[in-house]
Write a structure and sequence with these properties.
By secondary structure, the protein is of the alpha/beta class. The chain has one domain: Acetylglutamate kinase-like (Carbamate kinase). It is built from nine helices and 16 strands. The protein has an eight-stranded mixed β-sheet with strand order 3-8-2-1-11-15-16-14, with helices on both faces. Strand 6 and strand 7 form a beta hairpin. Helix 1 packs across helix 3, helix 2 packs across helix 3 and helix 6 packs parallel to helix 8.
């Protein structure tokens, strides 16, 4: 059996620029699972993770609008709610796509805690965009209210929160057992629910963990052979969005680290994906692929996408 971890980007649930709806999420998830059907074979133990940025944004909006009428929800609970919502959406899609293929592998979606270090420097320097986009006027008002806000990729302004490094996944043993039983597992959506250790207790913290970093951590500790990071571009590029834009079909971890050091990849966009791929490909026999869902089959054959592996 070969273990594979696949991470879905936000485009698995909605097209960029379109309004998010429940029906739309279900339809888009179905299409994403159709693209992943090449992984639904009996010789693959499959773990699926996913983004949750737009969903958490809408949950935060509901919280803000309901202040004084319903109890407030902290950010880590918003992440947990989004894990439940999207776990259900993906379970539906996986069941229905498998049924079309005549397959009936069991599916399990897990609420997944991820332990971070309370002293992580990220808590002093919030960088992770969350929630909806705001105009410059709205952003200034949020700043006056004490929220950290930044401009996000030319699309507007968003709140930013801490994005600490994932250290441990308490549910990893359960995930391992489920995979060994042939279950397709959905876990650590949105990077997982951020928690810290307080003695022998665990408590939630206001943060969002990068989903690609958590997926790489799980793939490493579960001894997967392949990490697939699905995004909304066909591959990683040198000089992205410039006249000198060049696809990167294959790269070694050491060469990728050199490009990271020279600032080739955008923070909050391709950078965490490349870093996660390098984090996972820490020994021979492992491989990471970065691609969009439509080119997954070709990427698995080395004919598309960006592959990170030892030379």
């Amino acid at each position: 059996m070969s273990r594979v971890v696949a991470v879905l980007g936000g485009n698995a649930f909605v097209t960029s620029g379109q309004h998010l709806t429940m029906d739309g999420q279900i339809q888009f998830a179905h299409q994403a699972m159709l693209q992943l059907q090449c992984l639904f074979t009996d010789d693959i133990e499959l773990l699926i993770s996913h983004g949750n940025g737009p969903q958490v944004g809408h949950i935060l909006t509901r919280v803000e609008l309901a202040l004084g009428k319903a109890y407030s929800i902290p950010l880590e609970v918003c992440v947990a709610e989004s894990e439940g919502e999207l776990g259900y959406v993906l379970e539906l899609a996986l069941h229905n796509v498998q049924a079309r293929l005549g397959k009936h592998r069991p599916i399990a979606a897990l609420l997944t805690r991820v332990i971070v270090d309370e002293n992580d420097a990220a808590f002093q320097n919030p960088t992770k965009p969350v929630g909806v986009f705001y105009s410059s006027i709205q952003a200034e008002e949020l700043r006056k209210q004490g929220f950290a806000v930044c401009e996000d990729s030319g699309r507007g302004f968003r709140r930013v929160v801490a994005s600490p490094i994932p250290r441990e996944v308490p549910e990893l043993g359960v995930i391992d057992q489920l995979l060994s039983m042939g279950t397709i597992v959905i876990a650590a959506g949105g990077g997982g629910i951020p928690v810290v250790r307080d003695g022998n207790q665990i408590r939630g913290v206001e943060a969002v963990i990068d989903k690609d970093r958590t997926a790489a951590l799980m793939a490493d500790q579960l001894d997967a052979r392949l990490l697939i990071i699905l995004t909304d571009v066909p591959c990683a590029y040198l000089n992205y969005r410039s006249a000198r834009q060049t696809p990167i079909p294959r790269i070694s971890p050491s060469d990728a680290n050199q490009l990271i050091a020279s600032g080739h990849f955008a923070p909050g966009s391709m950078l965490p994906k490349i870093e996660a791929a390098v984090q996972f490909v820490n020994r021979p026999g492992r491989k990471a692929i970065i691609c969009d869902s439509s080119s997954l089959s070709k990427s698995l054959l080395g004919e598309a996408g960006t592959t990170v592996e030892y030379p």
